[in-house]
Amino acid sequence: MRFYTKLIVCLLLCFLSMPLCAQISCLNASRNIRIGLVSQGLPDTWKIEPSSGFIEIFDQNKRQSVYSGKAAEIVITAMKGGKMKVAVDARKSLYYFSNELLFSAVGRPPINLKVRAGGRKSFSYRGSIAIFPQSGGLRGVNVVDIEDYLKSVVPSEIFNRAPDAAQQAQTIAARTYAIRNLSRHSDKDNFQLCDKVHCQVYSGIAREIKAASKAVIETAGKILIYGNSPANTVYHSNCGGYIIDSRAAWKGASVPYLIGHFDGISGHKPFCYYGKLIKTNSLKGKLPAPQKKIRIAQLSSAAKASTHKNFGHRVGMCQDGAIGMAAIGYGFRQILAFYYPGTQLATMRYAVPTGKPVEDRPIVVASLPQTTPVSLAAPPNPTQVNALRRSGKTRKPGSIKGALRQISENGSGYTAVGLRKLFWTPGEPGISRNIY
Q1: Rounded (10°) angle between helices 146-157 and 164-180
Q2: Is the link from the previous residue into 379 a cis peptide, with omega within 30 of 0?
Q3: Which of 198, 324, 356, 399 has the most neighbouring CB atoms within 10 Å?
C-alpha cells in the first residue's frame, strides 16, 4: 500500500508541476470566431458592399478563390435545390454553389463589409462574411477577430459612458463568456455564437464607441478562469442591492464564484445604487472612499434580499455595481474579484507577445472564508505561439489588382505594403483583420 500511495503522490505532484498553460486548453482558442447573424433571418438574397471597392470570394469547399477583383455590390440569391447564385455588380454571374462562400474586403484599412439581408436594414461588419444555403434560405455568418467582435459587444451590453474600469471589467467578462460558449451553436448551425442577447448582443461597427474599443485594446486576450476552464461570467443590469446565488436563480449545482452577497461595503449603500445615480446624472454629494479590502458576507443559497428594484437575473457581475465601483476608484481587477470571487485572471495565448512577463498578480479585494483557499493569482503565461504566423514572404508593393491576382493564385500569406493584411491558414483562409 505504501508503494501505491507514494506512486499516486508522485503522479499528482507531476501533474501539479506541469505548466498551467498545458492544462488549460481554452487559452489556445483561435481568435477568429463565427458569429451567426441570426437577427437577419434566412432571406432569399444578401447584398454585400466592400468599403474598399474590392472583394475576394473564397469557395470553402474547393479551398480556392473563385473571384478577386473590383466590386461595388455583390448579390447572393437563393436558388432551387439548396444552391445559390452570386452576381458581381450585375455584370458577372458566378456558378451556382451549394456550399459556403467567404466574402472578404481587400484594401487600405480601415475597411469593412456593408451587408443587407433581404429587405432589412443594412449593417457593417469587420472581418469576413460567410454565406451558405440553410432551411430554404441563406444564412449569413460574420467570421471576425474576437477582439473586433468585442468592440461591438461591450457598448451593446453596458452604459456607454461607464468609467474605464467598468468598461474593462465588462470587456473581460464578455470575452470570457464568448470563449466559454464557443460550442453553443457549432454542431447544428455551422457557427459558434449568434448575435442575439442569449449569446451577447452584437450589431457590428454601428455600436462601436471609443471608450469600449480602448477597453478592448487595454485588456487584449484577458479572461477569467476557475480551475482549468473559463469562468461562467454571467452579468446583469442591476442586482437590487444584493447579488444572489446561481442556485437561487436557476437551481442546479453550486458554483463557488457565483454566490449571494451584499453589493457593497458594510455601512454604505450598495455599489449599484451609486452606479444607477451616475447613469441618470442624479448623483449628489460625495462617493464613499475605496477600501483596500472588502470581505464578502455570503448569503444562503436561497436568499433573494433586495434594497431596491432589480433588473436582470442578479447573478454574477452587476453592471450598475461595476459602474459604481469604478466611479468610487476601484480598478477592473478589483471589480472582477468582487463579483467573481475565487477566479483567476489569464491571458489567451494569441494575445501574448514574445517576451512578455507573466500576468500581473491581481489585487485581491474580495475574500471568502474557505477551508481550501483559492488563490486569485493568475497562472503563468504560456510560451508564445504566434496565432498570426504565416507561411510565405512579404512581397514588394504593387497595384491592388496585382495584389488580388496573387491572393487568388496563392493560398499562402501575402502582404502588400499599404494594403490590409490577409492572414491565410489551412483552417481559416481569407480571414482578415484590422491592425490596432
Answers
A1: 120
A2: no
A3: 324
Q: 10 Å Cβ neighbour count for 412? A: 12
Query: Could you tell me the pTM of the whole model?
Result: 0.79
C-alpha 418/C-alpha 16 separation (Å) is 48
Residue ranges of domains in the chain: 20-31+145-387, 400-432
Digit-coded pLDDT (tens) for 248-258? 999 999 999 99
CB 375 within 8 A of CB 366: no
> pLDDT-derived band of residue 109, with 50, 70 and 90 as boundaries?
confident
CA distance 391 to 29: 20
User: In whole angstroms, what is the distance from residue 83 CA to residue 132 CA?
Assistant: 8
- The three-state (H, E, C) secondary structure of the chain, written as one string: CHHHHHHHHHHHHHHHHCCHHHHCHHHHCCCEEEEECHHHCCCCEEEEEECCCEEEEEECCCCEEEEEEECCCEEEEEECCCEEEEEECCCEECCCECCCEEEEECCCCCCCEEEEECCCCCEEECCEEEEEEECCEEEEEEEEEHHHHHHHHHHHHCCCCCCHHHHHHHHHHHHHHHHHCCCCCHHHHCCCEECCCCCCCCCHHHHCCHHHHHHHHHCCCEEEEECCEECCCCEECECCCEECCHHHHHCCCCCCCCCCEECCCCCCCCHHHHHHHHHCCCCCCCCCCCCCCEECCCCCCCCCCCCCCCECCCCCEEHHHHHHHHHHCCCHHHHHHHHCCCCEEEECHHHCCCCCCCCCCCCCCEECCCCCCCCCCCCCCCCCCCCCCCCCCCCCCCCHHHHHHHHHHCCCCECCCCCCCEECCCCCCCEECCCC
Beta bridge pairs of residue 38: none
Per DSSP bridges, beta strands 193-194 and 32-36 are parallel
pLDDT digits (tens, 9 = 90+) for 304-346: 999 999 999 999 999 999 999 999 999 999 999 999 999 999 9
